[in-house]
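assembly run, all chains below
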Amino acid sequence: MYALIDISYIIFDVILCHPFFIFHQPFLSDNIGKLCGAAQGLYIMNIPFHVPYIDDSDIEAAVGAIKSGWTTMGPQTIEFEDSFSHYIGMPYAVAVSSCTAALHLALKVCGIGPGDEVIVPANTFVATAEVVLYCNARPVFADIDRDTHCISVDAIYRLLSPKTRAIIPVHFAGHPCAMDAILDIAHEYNLYVIEDAAHALPSWYKGKRVGTIGHIGCFSFYATKTLSTGEGGMLVTHNEEWASRARRLRLHGMNRDAWKRYDRGGSWQYDIEETGYKYNMTDIAAAMGLMQLEKVEQLCKKREAIARMYNEAFAVSDALIPYTVQEGISAWHLYPLKLKLEALSITRDEFIVKLEERGIKTSVHFIPLYRFSCFAHEYGNEAMFPDTEWVFAREISLPIYPSMTEKQVNYVIENVCAIAQEYKR
Ligand SMILES: Cc1ncc(COP(=O)(O)O)c(C=O)c1O
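ok done. output:
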């Protein structure tokens, strides 16, 4: 295996980096569709599933925060909140330690508690449902749309009950959910809409920024996200009262945080007004966030270009289903390819192994929540979520990140198409 990789590197370096091939790069990118079916996979490149985009400005900002002597929540966090609220176009932004924390605080400030039900998609990261349980409320899983993988509006209608208090739509991969229909339901049944925008910075829905459409929007700055501070999150809202309660709850229910106490004119005194959490952001993370925010649009364009290449290439295969999205609306946090299993003699899991053998790391988004042992039986089973099951059997998330080179993207395309061709029924 190692020998094969070594030899493949020689093939890659000596042959593919030959001026002939470099000269023909534009040809490659213009004719990606033609690469499908023609690929032979002669060499192995190692393509990680994700590589974070952290440049010198991010590093210098983090080091600056450390050297300033104030590393916990302080002036950088305040500046990051101001910049984020300005960027996203919402009056209040509350920086926290994760999107999970933001979602939890969102439910708390909306008053969700015991006896309440909150509708969440069955196909999401576990955090979306766990935060409902943190409030001693009940998550109700909804089936999804086969094309977008976002929550199904019909499923929401079917799941409404007198106990329903909120809906958490997840903008899957950055693709906006059907927010008009969701807001109509919320309006009719007096429900809160908390947008899980963990994947959706920057995404758009009918001219509005995703995360600003419902009552509260929650963003993630986790290591793999489109803006990364290692760990981190942001809650945004129009509601001043909710924002100020979220600020209090993120730091133990304290009425005055450390920066306010130790800054000039501050006082050592504080009160605990209610039981809260340790959910604050650090100034080290916020300093990185400020730098990353400046690049977020430019980095999105790079992911969009990769998605376009994938879509063009996979559209010509009769064994693959590209994730086509109207241009300019998705953050493209993920590229979710689907397999036409009916046209293939291998399963999704076997396809992933074939990609791995060719050095391409992938992932699956998501393992449906009802399949986890902690939710099984009580929250549903495979038979209740036919569309989530349909997507789960077919989905493979391909590498998509700003530092991917055209060569790497073409390598992924060639190999996905080659495997699809090789295992065609
Ligand atoms: C849809 C979704 N919601 C929420 C989260 C939680 O984000 P965080 O890790 O910042 O808590 C994630 C994380 O991957 C996610 O994918």
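The CA atoms of residues 51 and 298 lie 16 Å apart.

Residues 1-41 have pLDDT under 50 and may be disordered.

not gonna interpret more than that til we talk
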